[in-house]
Design brief:
By secondary structure, this protein is α+β, with helices and mostly antiparallel strands. The chain has one domain: Winged helix-like DNA-binding domain superfamily/Winged helix DNA-binding domain (Arc Repressor Mutant, subunit A). The strands form 6 sheets. It has a 3-stranded antiparallel beta sheet, with no helix packed on it. It has a 3-stranded antiparallel beta sheet with strand order 7-11-12, with no helix packed on it. It is globular. The chain starts with 6 loop residues before the first strand and ends in a 16-residue tail after the last strand. The C terminus is likely disordered.
Length: about 325
């Protein structure tokens, strides 16, 4: 028996991060939402190395998120098309965009204007409760262990904190630095479930102590969490700032996607309820103009770029 094997709580967020919890992958997905379909378009928009793009596109194909389709015989050319599984990540993208608009550094970045086709108004889709339609506040959410809760083997690939060069056109470059680093995302997940001591976070996520120390310092530096001491207690505590709490809808969207596409046979490992209306929490993205739910097919967009030389001539509407 291998005594070095570590086990952690089962988590749909973890399963989702195994697929999309990587900054290059998130930037490639962002490029797709903005109209990129061909390899050269992904390269131009993200600024990533060709080998990195090839690797991430292959992994998205292996995960049944993309299909590589030949569209020309002479010369032979291919493009990438989204599956239903990929399109179902759209709420994650909208939640990330909402966070980026509130908290991201905007200088030199791409600006995007969304329009809700059903009402014709400018839309800044905000994460809300699908029952009472109130904006989601992490402090108003209760959670309980679900029927799918169990223990799973902690298996990590070799990943480092993201430092890949990109152009200055990324929509959610700042939040991709956090969600695209799985260690950071799992630390935030632990804090949202009430685990705020170093050892509690380490036990919950199976992160090596040196990596955990480094990521906590990074999250503090980014203003996502803060460290505080209680004089009568021996251990320091960590808590989320307002900026950090606003990441919660992104994790909910990741959890929903993981529940749907990587389900536990027994059900969801985690159950969420909205204290404001005393109902099970169902995430919706609400149009800022009409207050109705929006989906991928409901939205068109216009893009403004501060540095046009970095762009790929993106279309005004997304191509499915």
């Amino acid at each position: 028996m291998n005594n070095n094997v570590q086990y952690i709580r089962t988590c749909s967020i973890w399963r989702a991060l195994e697929v999309v919890g990587d900054k290059p992958t998130l930037l490639i997905m962002e490029s797709y939402w903005l109209g990129a379909r061909r390899f050269t378009e992904f390269k131009s928009h993200t600024g990533l190395l060709k080998t990195v793009i090839s690797d991430r596109l292959r992994k998205l194909i292996d995960a049944d998120c993309l299909e590589k389709v030949q569209y020309s015989d002479r010369p032979k050319r291919f493009e990438y098309r989204a599956t239903a599984k990929f399109l179902d990540v759209y709420p994650v993208a909208l939640c990330m965009l909402h966070w980026e608009k509130n908290w991201g550094e905007r200088e030199g970045k791409m600006a995007i204007s969304l329009t809700h086709k059903k009402c014709g108004g400018k839309a800044d889709p905000s994460p809300a409760c699908g029952t009472c339609h109130k904006d989601i506040d992490a402090r108003e959410i209760d959670w309980a262990n679900g029927p799918g809760l169990g223990m799973m083997k902690a298996t990590y690939g070799r990943r480092r904190s993201s430092s890949n060069p990109t152009t200055q056109t990324a929509l959610f470059d700042n939040i991709a630095e956090i969600i695209g680093d799985r260690w950071s995302a799992l630390i935030i997940r632990s804090l949202f479930t009430g685990l705020n001591k170093f050892q509690e976070i380490q036990d919950d996520s199976a992160i090596a102590s040196n990596v955990l120390t480094e990521r906590l310092a990074v999250l503090i530096d980014k203003g996502i969490i803060e460290k505080f001491n209680i004089p009568e207690r021996r251990h320091s505590r960590y808590k989320l700032t307002d900026k950090g709490r606003d990441i919660y809808p992104i994790l909910i969207a990741l959890m929903n996607w993981g529940d749907r596409w990587y389900p536990s046979p027994k059900g969801s490992p985690l159950l969420l309820s909205h204290k404001t209306c005393n109902s099970d929490l169902v995430l919706e993205l609400k149009c800022s103009t009409c207050g109705k739910s929006v989906t991928f097919t409901d939205i068109t967009f216009d893009v403004e770029l501060t540095k046009p030389a970095n762009t790929i001539g993106l279309p005004a509407v997304p191509r499915i």
